[in-house]
Amino acid sequence: MTALFSIFKLLLKIAAAPVVAILALLVWFCTWLVYVSGAVLGLVSLLLCVCSVLLFLSSSVTGGIIYLILAFLASPFGLPTAALWLLDRIQGLRYWIQESVYE
């Protein structure tokens, strides 16, 4: 029974190794992508904020509010933060698989 359990554990380790490696590469690439897109979206957010101020000055309050909401979503506090939260969950899944299988 112990030999069968050790063989099963070895097969599980062999099957989990590619999954852990793929998750590690995915997290690494997506983290890089989030930081690059965060820099670009920061500039887009600035442009949207300036357009919002111009719309407020031209007495289009609704358009100004819409542009402010879009500027917030494009800012580093909007969508990039949500992407980093999702990456954190994927990283947690990877660590959970490693701890469950390799210990």
Brief write-up:
The protein is mainly α.
Describe the structure in your own words.
Helices cover 91% and strands 0% of the residues. By secondary structure, it is an all-alpha fold. The protein starts with a helix and ends with a helix. The mean pLDDT is 90.
Proportion of residues in helical segments: over 70%
SSE succession: HHH
List the uncertain runs: none
Number of strands: 0
Query: What would you call the shape?
Result: rod-shaped
Which class do the helix and strand fractions yield? mainly alpha
Number of helices: 3
Largest sheet: none
Head-to-tail CA distance between termini: 20 Å
Beta-strand portion reads under 5%
| Overall pLDDT score | 90
- What Rg is obtained from the alpha carbons, in whole angstroms? 23 Å
Explain the layout of strands and helices:
Blueprint: H1 2-57, H2 61-74, H3 79-102
What would the keywords be for this entry?
mainly alpha, 103 residues, rod-shaped, 91% helix, 3 helices
